[in-house]
Write a structure and sequence with these properties.
Order of helices and strands: HHEEEEEEEEEEEEEHE
Number of helices: 3
Helix content: 40-55%
Radius of gyration: 64 Å
Structural class: alpha+beta
Number of strands: 14
Strand content: 25-35%
Length: about 260
């Protein structure tokens, strides 16, 4: 019985010891927490006041200074933009001035060229007689002549120059042989084209061996011989039927030709 009582007393002593130990530990922890909180709070106050003071020192209290600086910066920017605009406008004016001067120089050059260069005037051909001989039948476009071969009154769009068979026919003016053909009315025919819309036509020929189509011929160059191949004038004496055309219209050859060879 005593042994059991003793064990109970020892057990109670152990519980008390544990209680006091736990309480002491909690008390130490609490005191440590309180001390730490006080120290940390004081540091925060110091940092807060220090930061506020520094911010106050950095930021000027006088708002007029800030406004002045902002106005100055705005003015400087405005001046810079205005200067840039003025520079661009000045460049544009310079470009327009150069363009105007260039156009004026080009105009002056063109006027000078036009003044100095005389227009090229191509004279009308001066035809010579393709053969020597008298005109035995005149040009009759607006009147009628009597054809012994046809036994009727007809128009006559050229002149007939009297010449013996095999007489050499010469080009009345320089040009290009456009065709050599057999005309059903006027027989073997040569057509030569000249400047300014003129053509000369040589008909009632015997031969054309001196030339070929497309050939360039000079004034007075031999081109054919007189024959008797024109069915409309076969009864007439040997002759050369000669026509001149201006812009596709038959004209009187005697107006444009001389009879010297």
């Amino acid at each position: 019985m005593r042994r059991g009582r003793r064990e109970k007393i020892e057990k109670n002593s152990n519980v008390k010891y544990l209680f006091y130990l736990s309480g002491g530990t909690l008390l130490i922890i609490f005191i440590t927490f309180v001390i730490t909180f006080i120290i940390y709070n004081n540091k925060l106050d110091n940092y807060s006041s220090l930061t506020t003071e520094k911010i106050a020192d950095l930021v000027p209290n006088d708002t007029s200074i800030i406004n002045t600086e902002l106005e100055q910066a705005s003015t400087d920017i405005g001046k810079t933009i205005e200067e840039a605009i003025n520079t661009i406008e000045n460049k544009q004016e310079e470009i327009e001035e150069v363009k105007t001067k260039t156009e004026q120089n080009i105009t002056n050059v063109q006027e000078t060229v036009q003044t100095n260069v005389e227009p090229v005037i191509i004279k009308d051909p001066e035809f010579i007689s393709p053969v020597e001989g008298e005109v035995m039948r005149e040009f009759a476009k607006d009147s009628l002549i009597y054809s012994e071969t046809l036994e009727e009154w007809i128009t006559h769009l050229g002149i007939d120059i009297k010449a013996n068979r095999t007489t050499v026919v010469k080009a009345a003016e320089a040009g290009s042989v456009s065709s050599i053909k057999n005309d059903p009315r006027y027989g073997l025919t040569v057509v030569i084209e000249h400047v300014n819309g003129f053509k000369s036509i040589y008909s009632n020929l015997l031969t054309t061996e001196f030339i070929s189509e497309g050939e360039k011929v000079e004034k007075g160059q031999s081109i054919a011989t007189v024959g008797n191949s024109a069915s409309f004038e076969i009864i007439d004496e040997p002759h050369l039927h000669f026509e001149i055309i201006k812009d596709n219209i038959n004209v009187d050859p005697k107006i444009y030709m001389s009879f010297g060879m």
